[in-house]
Each structure stands twice: as C-alpha cells, then as structure tokens.
Here is the input.
Amino acid sequence: MRIGNSRVTATEVARKAGVSQPTVSLVLSRNPKARVAPATRARVLKIAQELGYRPNRLAQGLVRRRSYALGVIVPGFDNPVYAAVISGAEKVAAQAGYAVLLCEAKGSEVVQHLEALRDRQIDGVIIAGIAASTLPAAALDGLNVVLVNQPSEKFSTVGSDSLKAGTIAAEHLLALGHRRLAFLGPADAIPAFRLRERGFFQALRGAGVPLSSELIQRAAATVAGGLAGMRALLALSERPTAVFCANDLMALGAHKACSVAGVGLPRDLSLLGCDDIEMAQLVTPELSTIAVPARELGARAVRLLLKQIDADGALPPASQLLAVKLVTRGTTGHHPPAHPR
Here is the structure.
C-alpha cells in the first residue's frame, strides 16, 4: 500500500495486473456494461486492493457526467426507522463509491432540499416518510427518484408490506379474544400509516368486529402523540381491551400512559406497535410489534437507484415489496376478564 499523500494510479494497477490501462478503468469504474472477462476483473480488483488504489471520483464524474452523490430526504433524523433506512442506504452507497447527502425536511422544506440537490447535480434521490404525491410535479422532474414505503406509478418504489402489517395486527389481537379494539395513528398523508390503518380496519370488518369512531384516536406519530392518544382512550367509559398503534413511537407513548394510569400490560389491556425499533425492547414489559426491515429498505432503495442511474433513465419504474412479521413480546395477551376503571 502506498504511504504518504501520493495516490496510486490506474496505470500502476494495469502494469502490475498485466493488462491495459483502459481495461483497468473499465473494471474500476464498475460499469455494468463493461465487457471484461471475470478472471481479469477479479485480478484487477485484487491488485487494486493490494496497492490501496482509490478512484478519483472527480475525474470519473467529469468523464461520465456524474457527481457520485445521492440525496436521501426524510422528515426527521430522530425517528429510529429513518435512521435505519439511512444506515442501510449509506452502506450500499459507500460500497459503490457514492457519497450520501442527508436532508431533514418538513413541509415546504422538501422542495427547497430538492432544488439544492439539483443545483449540486445530484445523481439520484431517495425520499422516505414524505408523500411524493403532495410535492409539485416540477420538483421531481428530470431526477432519478426512488420512493420508500409509498406506492407510485411514476417512480420506482421500495416498501414494506404496510397493508399486511395492519392485517397481521388485527389477526393477532382477534386471535387473543379481543373484540373491543382501538387504533391510534396520525392524521397525516404518509402512505405507510394509511395502509397500516386500512389493513387493520379491513381485517376487523372481515371478522365482523365493529370499530366505533371513539376508538380511533388521531395524534402525532411521536411518543408525545401516543401518550395523548392513549390517555383519551383510557378516559372512555368503556375502554378498549387492545390497541394497535401505527408505529412504535406512538406505542411507547401509549405504554407510558398505561403505566401512569395503573393499567397493566397485558393484564388489563393489550398494546401492539409497528416497526420493531430498538427502544421497543427497553421498556417493561417489552413491546409486541410488527417488524419492518428498515435497513433493507434503504439498501434496496440505493441498489434500485444505481440501476436507474446506470441505465440513464431507460428503465421503467420498478416496485419491490418486503415482508413484515409479528414479534410477540410482553404487551399483548388474552382478553382480560373485565375492564379496569
């Protein structure tokens, strides 16, 4: 490996590998269209690693008209789900030689971030937790875009099966004997939340279990929102015996509300979240939830975006849907014998 500030060149790699410099450039550019024998490719990559070769992204960018940078836009870095999406995205991007520019956006800030990324000639953008349907069409025109957890006919998407998550939640609580169930979720237009809610409601209707309006509480998709929503449910003259929360942050707030009110989980009430964030296991009892592969969503989003970039916009929109699964812990149990007051 070269010591000091001097950079190992592609010419040096070519000399040691016994191939031409253009062949080395083709291999190290990782261009999928490059026609290089597998054995030659493997030898070049091995020698490049031994020599400590690092590609000059600025030079490559000028040749291929790329910035070798991707943008990731999320509504907040404090949500563990988006942090996991970013983690998965950054790992794959780094392996492909791309930098990731992170943008935290709320409301109109999304358009401002998109304009800033466009000005920096970003190669592609991943949008998670923000409904693309609410953005002006011009803000996304001409960009390579992959959406996370939201359906689209225009853009490629990677998502967890949010509709199935809601169905699994209802089926789990119904199987435990609960018939007075409640839903706690946000009122915003984020598709993942809407689909979780729809799957939950559809499964209840299919089982002939009514869900009155008083058992549907709207609040921010945060711990504070869950705390307020659960307090409202606990104040009902007839409390629910089970509550499904649209995400784990709300469920953790609901967990706290039950603790303060002296409502035992799951003795007096069953509580189910969605996402399976790490904090779900840091409360007592541990939170039952629906696991969502957040890191894999970020990883797949980058892989799909890189395919689009390499195809120069020639690929039609693609869609990938990842499975979710029930994780039963300590907050869900069989229907209680009576409603505590």
The longest strand covers residues 69-74. The radius of gyration is 25 Å. Residues 3 and 52 are 9 Å apart (CA to CA).
